[in-house]
Amino acid sequence: MKKETAAVLVMAIFAMVSPVVNAAQSELVIADFDTGDKPNNIGGDFGAWDKDPYDDTQGTKLSFEPDDALGDSAGYSVRLDYDVDSVNPAYNGFWMKLNGEDASRFNSLSFFVKGDAEKEFTNRIKIELKDMSARPSAYVVSGITSEWQRVTIPFEKFRRINDWTSLNEFVIVFDDVNSRPKAGSLYIDQISFV
After folding, report:
1. 108-144 per-position pLDDT tens digit
2. What is the pLDDT of residue 142?
């Protein structure tokens, strides 16, 4: 009788723990920026990019800020100060290498974003994913506010990705068409596959 009671107790404990284990396996954090430095959580490099580095009227600057989307007092996020206010065609942003990561067991891209109310910010950004063919597949995110919010984009929205078993790059694009105002600051944190 005692063995049966112990077995039932072990099964009850396992049932309580099991969903937590499954939940932990249902997300791969690509970058939480909590070290305040490179690389990302899977060993990939990242940085800001500019369409024309010789045009000083446009560009994106990257910095680490102690403003963590999940409220971790020791954590960081990435701040992107963008400017696409140029007489020339302008676009720039943020890139992150995914090192051939296999995302086939997931179905969505997720990240946290907010704008800087003091500096202003665009409420629309273009997100690109690239597989190893390096061909971009884009999706426009809108509705960004000055409060942290989690954005989740189903993989099916990235229609040009042919191979989810080997991803190459995650990109944020600011451009002179979608970005209003044309200069401002956004915070990004907790980039994940879910």
Report:
1. 999 999 999 999 999 999 999 999 999 999 999 999 9
2. 97
Rg (CA), the chain: 20
Which stretches of 39-142 are assigned E, i.e. beta strand? 46-50, 59-65, 77-83, 91-101, 108-115, 124-131, 136-142
Nearest to 174 by CA among 62, 31, 40: 62
Peptide bond into 39 cis (omega under 30): yes
What pLDDT is recorded for position 193?
Answer: 98
Percent of the chain predicted with pLDDT > 90: 81
Phi, psi of 19 (to 5 degrees): -60, -35
Question: Rounded to the nearest 5 degrees, what angle is found at the Cα of 34, between the Cα atoms of 29 and 36?
Answer: 130
Q: Using CB atoms within 10 A of its CB, is residue 81 exposed (0-12), middle (13-18) or buried (19+)? A: middle
pLDDT at 15: 34
Q: Which domains does the chain have, with CATH numbers?
A: 28-193 (2.60.120.430)
Q: In a 3-state reduction of DSSP, which class is residue 190?
A: strand
In this prediction, residue 53 carries a pLDDT of 86
